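Worked example

This section walks through a single chain of length 273. The input is the sequence exactly as stored; nothing has been trimmed or padded.
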Amino acid sequence: MKYFTNYHKYLLYFIIKMSFFLIIGVKKGGTTFLHNQLRLFSAINLPFIKETHFLFPMVKKRKKKFQKNFKNLFNSLSNQTDKNFLIKFLSNKPNNIHNYFNLLSSEKEINGECDPELFLLNKNLIYEISKKNFKIVCLLRDPVQRFFSHVKMIIKDKNLDPNIYISKNFESLTHQVNHSLYSKHLSNWLNIIPNNQILFINSNDLRNYKKETCKKIIRFIIDDDNFPFQDSLFIKDEVNVGSEWKLDSKLNIKLQSFFTEDKKIYEETLKSS
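Given that input, the structure is written out below as tokens.
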């Protein structure tokens, strides 16, 4: 009984000692690059699965994808942390905040996930996250440019001009529009998460000053202003190749008008952070 008690005391201490973070977005803001970069730091535990969608109904689709090829995938994973994560992720436990917390927990002190869908969480779940003291990192990109980039990504295999595709009725592109509604979703986070627990990053800074911006994010996550870095661990700062598709000027005016409030909160948030 004494051993049992001491074990749980140790477990409690270990859980309290751990810290957690979430990269909540936005889509087409540089989250894939950031996920790949953070995975290179041994002090940080980030799932090999980017965007688990654990707190959303679409998690069922994600699980089916990994269950289908479980054996080959499991054998291909190079470390036990990733293998343990896969097993926990595919378990039949309810997809609530408590199990999400346990899913991200590992033998490392710093644990988190990168999933831009989290940007769309409702107030109740954001409140539950705030009680767990998650540190939040949010990459922000101009809502119009973000929307256009999102649409280009969706139709890239259809060989369609995104300007024509959007012009027909852009408001019908619910999912793509929704991720640029900063006045709605960003306000939910700002009204619940304390200022010292959330870091906003201009995606242009990540694009143009990758190493410096990543260092800022990592120091925030680890909560150590003096954390030492090995430059060899940073992904090479390659030149960004722009898309052949540019936003039509008339469509740009229309979108600027539609996202007026979202553009305002985007600029104000970055200015005050």
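What to look for: The mean pLDDT is 91.
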